[in-house]
Design goal:
The protein is of the alpha/beta class and 415 residues long. It has twelve helices and 21 strands. The strands form three sheets. Strands 4, 14, 15, 16, 17, 18, 19, 20 and 21 form a nine-stranded mixed beta sheet that branches. The protein has an eight-stranded parallel beta barrel with strand order 5-6-7-8-9-11-12-13, surrounded by six helices. Bound molecules: pyridoxal-5'-phosphate. Pyridoxal-5'-phosphate is lined by residues 68, 70-71, 89, 112, 206, 209, 236-238, 276-280, 371.
């Protein structure tokens, strides 16, 4: 019933039928760190970074792969990926601070944001980031006002590609809140060039997330090829991943092949390519482990776990299907709904899934939670921020510890 192809690369079922990630039993991690907990296969995360870098650099040596840190904004994750050679994309002064805490090289960083405040830009200027991405005329004014030396910038354009993904994940159409719509691009380029301290080096676009049709990336490159030529092109992120056994997605190699061949055909080869994978870098390399708290057998069977929309908003925000499983158990199959512990009917992890007949205390694993789940974890019903644990070669180590109730209460001002 467990589809191991959804789990991190170094996942196995051992001789006693127990699930192991990076050599560690998920059960032992749950005992030691409590539940819910996120487990990351560190070696798989590293190998994914190398897969991305090789896929692009073998075809186009002048490529930078920047991890979109918003998809897993933990310093330990950023550190692993930068150690393997990735740069980092940050979208606020806060994400920049996390990346700097991870000792990431500012030269390999890009700052994004459709609403950068003065303090975000000041932090980026102080750290001397590789590029700041201009997303509006206001950015032009702000950066020009705050800069005291030349600043390398990219211009984010909306390439008028309506990606076929969830509406909430479409970002590259002309009415998007992101980027400059196609009909205003020339005007903004003119304004940037009027500012002596803004050094416009290239264009940026990002058409959306969880995109599984490579034609859309080709359309993105094509849209940029209709504009004037630049030495740097940043195509954003967006490659989709498998969440369930039925999903089919292109490989990183196929994605790189499509981008690079289209670039070479339409833009030439004497330029720098940047890509910013988030979801496809981290999603499969992590899973969330919960414990069953209640099994309610009524009209439907509700199996309630000790987490839910406080640690996974992908389900309620995008209707993203996941494929949870009851692990380490050999029992008759039963069709159930797995629900969270929060006060919302929408707090459901999955409906109508076949699992080993559940009982209180069983462990539930949800694979492919590496992208955007940690990002949006929250304190709904005073849920405490969950721990993140790295597993590698049979050893586990905490990367983020569980929040404490004292930390939660520490922000309250009662006098
Ligand atoms: C979110 C985002 C990404 C990453 O997108 P994924 O779908 O997670 O790969 C990259 N670049 C920008 C500008 C983004 O906003």
């Amino acid at each position: 019933m467990i589809d191991l192809t959804l789990y991190p690369e170094n996942t196995s079922i051992d001789d006693e039928g127990k699930l192991r990630i990076g050599g560690c039993r998920a059960r032992d991690v749950a005992e030691e760190f409590g539940t819910p907990a996120m487990i990351i296969d560190e070696a798989a995360l590293r190998s994914r970074a190398r897969e991305y870098l090789n896929a692009f650099r073998s075809r186009h040596p002048q490529t930078e792969v920047l991890f979109a840190s918003k998809s897993f904004p933990a310093a330990s994750v950023i550190r692993v990926l930068t150690e393997e050679g990735c740069g980092v994309d940050v979208a606020s002064g806060g994400e920049l601070a996390i990346a700097l805490a991870a000792s990431a090289d500012p030269k390999g960083m890009v700052l994004h944001g459709n609403a950068k405040r003065d303090d975000d830009i000041e932090a980026a200027l102080k750290a001397r980031l590789g590029h700041i991405v201009i997303d509006s005329l206001d950015d032009v004014e702000r950066i020009a006002r705050l800069a005291s030396e030349p600043v390398p910038v990219l211009l984010r354009v909306s390439p008028a590609v309506a990606a076929s993904t969830h509406a909430a994940m479409m970002t590259g159409h002309d009415s998007s809140k992101f980027g400059i719509p196609s009909f205003q691009i020339e005007e903004v380029i003119g304004r940037i060039r009027n500012e002596p301290l803004l050094d416009l080096q290239g264009l940026h676009a990002h058409i959306g997330s969880q995109i599984t049709d490579l034609d859309q990336f080709e359309a993105e490159v094509e849209a940029l090829s209709h504009l004037e030529r630049f030495p740097v092109y940043n195509f954003g992120g967006g490659l989709g991943v498998r969440y369930t056994s039925a999903d089919r997605v292109p490989s990183v190699d196929e994605y790189a092949e499509r981008i690079v061949t289209t670039v070479h055909r339409l833009l030439g080869s004497n330029l720098k390519i940047m890509v910013e994978p988030g979801r496809s870098m981290v999603a499969r390399n992590a899973l969330t482990v919960y414990r069953v708290v209640t099994v309610k057998r009524g009209l439907r069977t509700h199996v309630a776990v000790d987490g839910g929309m406080s640690d996974n908003l992908e389900v309620s925000l995008y209707g993203q299907p996941f494929e949870p499983a009851i692990i380490d158990k050999d029992a008759a199959a039963e069709v159930v709904d797995i629900v969270g512990q929060h006060c919302e009917s929408g707090d459901t992890l999955v409906r109508d899934i076949e699992v080993a007949a559940p009982e209180i205390g069983d462990l539930v694993a949800v694979p492919v939670t590496g992208a955007y789940c940690y990002t949006m974890h929250n304190n709904y019903n005073a849920a405490l921020g969950l721990p993140v644990v790295f597993c590698r070669d049979g050893k586990s180590k905490p990367a983020v510890r569980r929040q404490t109730l004292a930390e939660l209460l520490a922000r309250e001002v009662l006098d």
